[in-house]
Design brief:
about 190 residues; four-stranded antiparallel beta sheet; mainly beta; Methylamine Dehydrogenase, Chain H
Length: about 190
Amino acid sequence: MAKFTSGEERSQHPGSSNLSTSTPLPRSAVAISPDGRWLASAGRDGVVILSEIVEGKLGNSRKLLDHTSGVECLVFSPDSQRLASGSLDSKVRLHELPGKLVRTYDGLGMENEPVAGRVQSRVLALAWQDQLVAGTSKGILYRLSLGDDTSRRIARNGRDPIYALAFDARGRLLLGGQGRVEILTLERKLSSP
């Protein structure tokens, strides 16, 4: 069972507050919502723990048990109403807060591969500004539709794993790969297939 407490240690920065969580397994991903009301953490156990932040302290928590494999990345929507989680089973799960599963994007990085000899793709990174984007261990980048469970590949140079994603202030997508960072300018809308 996860235990949540407010931190007793003093921060090195005056005026900042500490929130701490302890769980039996290491957490591989953490995210805080843009409005500061939610903290999410996840780990190799496939469990996402979603906690409300009330007056600088952790309040009610819930476990999201939808993943069947370890969770590598988390990201909140810009309006703080949804949470996306990416996992080692090549899936991204989308939840409406406070935790209702609304969509699963399945098999990212696995399309067009024969079943025999298939090497599992893992979702390693997510970013969300005006669009939700996922990066995989096979170096494939996807734009995920927010209206349904479809995804579309985004063309890029290179096939190295995408370990980190972020949007800059101008809306460009930053990709962290094997020893390099790429910057991509994306189309604003997901075009129909």
